[in-house]
Amino acid sequence: MLHPTGTLTIEPQTQPKKSSGSCSCSGSSPKEIKDQKLQERIAKHPCYSEEAHHHYARMHVAVAPACNIQCNYCNRKYDCANESRPGVVSELLTPEEAAHKVLVIAGKIPQMTVLGIAGPGDPLANPEKTFRTFELIADKAPDIKLCLSTNGLMLPDHVDRIKQLNVDHVTITINMVDPKVGEKIYPWVRYNRRRYRGIEGVKILHERQMEGLQALQEADILCKVNSVMIPGINDEHLAEVDEVIRSKGAFLHNIMPLISAPEHGTYFGLNGQRGPTPKELKSLQDKCSGNMKMMRHCRQCRADAVGLLGEDRSQEFTKTKFMEMTPEYDIQKRQEVHAGIDQFREQLKATKEQKAAQKKRKTGEKILVAVATKGSGLVNQHFGHAKEFQIFEVDGAEVKFVGHRKIDHYCQGGYGEEATLNNIIQAISDCKAVLASKIGDCPQGELRKAGVEPFEGYDVIDKLALDFYEQYSKKTQS
Ligand code: CLF
Ligand code: SF4
């Protein structure tokens, strides 16, 4: 079957299971029914479901310029760093322009299922603009899920409105549950028309975040918590944050690395505060993953991001460009595309299960492999075209997504390729292999020298990863 957004035909090797939606719930326990409903709520949300992020896209509209707190990792000339890469500036839109953009993109990228507002300031410091945008979109494009990300300061005041507008997913950035830790992150907070400095402000922020989290749980709105990991400041404290948010009903925890550079002009950047290494980040995520579900596929996207999480199509839809485009939103066409994607996902799942069953044996050494992919759960990208590698942990029985590494892509038309290749190899040097649809002779040689096996193929990620694992085990045993 052809993926609606890709090119690979997967031969159904086992009969795809019937969609769970079609079965009656007789015989299911209340917990199973609850879990099933939860799965349906996140099935097309690329941030709340790791599996969905290979197939479905999100977009953001930058309608919220103001902010009410100061984070030491943020320079207010740029987008809110709680959900974005620092140093990125998005074009500000009015709610009407934003609604036009959403309708254009919903037609052009039918796998776009979620509209998020995440900046460039704090959405709830700009409630009129944020809610007006949601209203317009709910009215014109009812199949698009609405999503919101906030620092939490004004959240308790708006939970009713959020519920009323059917916004089902809310993210709060919580970097501390101890104001003494928070004091090193937030110099001030503006609340009720007054600016509170130091610990006084941090206490207000903490109380409001906890109140907001509780209110979301009571309103049955799914809540994800983002935490920025800042070595030496809150890295050891985040396990406690994880405990607290879990006990208050958060659905997912996304621990993101601090990205800090002097050219971003942030307090941390100018004072040499470093971000965590990929290894430090993974080890904290592993430590917390026993408590609750961890998000590991966040790409810290821009306030005007468009596309699958690993790709950035925002430049195709700048204001000048999208304002000249006519919206071609067609709910029926979109539903057909989604049905095709869901059928493909079922087949992908069946293929994975069958492959895992074939290979099932005692789990062995855990290794990491880097994968070049354009999405759809497939190894389907040329090594030289990859702008990031997805990282999977393989133990012979299971293939688990554990993160991604951004890189400069290798094919630069002959310029600077040697330096780029060195950087790429360094970024994936802890991986035993790189899986790509094609890898040139020169990079193959250099990768081997660095102990990273080039492994070519065009197939389901799990399938190729397990094939490589088998080859690797035989080699290491012999
Ligand atoms: Fe946007 Fe955030 Fe909604 Fe996703 S992003 S508002 S929950 S639709 Fe996603 Fe981007 Fe990470 Fe955010 S990858 S930065 S977690
Ligand atoms: Fe910057 Fe976002 Fe923090 Fe506001 S909440 S200071 S916009 S990172």
A few lines on this structure:
By secondary structure, the chain is of the alpha/beta class.
Assembly state here?
single chain
Strand residue percentage? 15-25%
What Rg is obtained from the alpha carbons, in whole angstroms? 22 Å
Query: Which strand order do you get reading across the main beta sheet?
Result: 9-8-5-4-3-1-10
Structural class: alpha/beta
Shape: globular
Question: Could you list the spans in which at least 5 consecutive residues all have pLDDT below 50?
Answer: 6-26
Descriptive overview:
- It is a single chain.
- The protein has 478 residues and is of the alpha/beta class.
- Helix content is 36%, strand content 17%.
- It has a seven-stranded mixed β-sheet with strand order 9-8-5-4-3-1-10.
- A hairpin with a 2-residue loop joins strand 6 (188-191) and strand 7 (194-197).
- Helix 11 (331-359) packs parallel to helix 14 (461-477).
- The longest helix is centred in the C-terminal third of the chain and has 29 residues, at 331-359.
- It is globular.
- It starts with 29 loop residues before the first helix and ends with a helix.
- 46% of the residues are buried.
- Residues 6-26 have low confidence and may be disordered.
- The structure holds FE(8)-S(7) cluster and iron/sulfur cluster.
Per-chain topology:
Layout: H1 30-42, E1 57-60, E2 69-70, H2 95-108, E3 112-117, H3 127-140, E4 145-150, H4 155-164, E5 169-173, H5 179-182, E6 188-191, E7 194-197, H6 198-218, E8 222-229, H7 238-247, E9 252-257, H8 267-270, H9 278-288, E10 306-307, H10 319-323, H11 331-359, E11 367-371, E12 378-379, E13 388-394, E14 399-406, H12 417-427, E15 433-436, H13 441-449, E16 453-456, E17 459-460, H14 461-477
Parallel strand pairs: 1-3, 3-4, 4-5, 5-8, 8-9, 11-15, 15-16
Antiparallel strand pairs: 1-10, 2-6, 6-7, 11-13, 12-17, 13-14
The structure holds FE(8)-S(7) cluster and iron/sulfur cluster.
FE(8)-S(7) cluster binds next to strand 1, strand 3, strand 4 and strand 5.
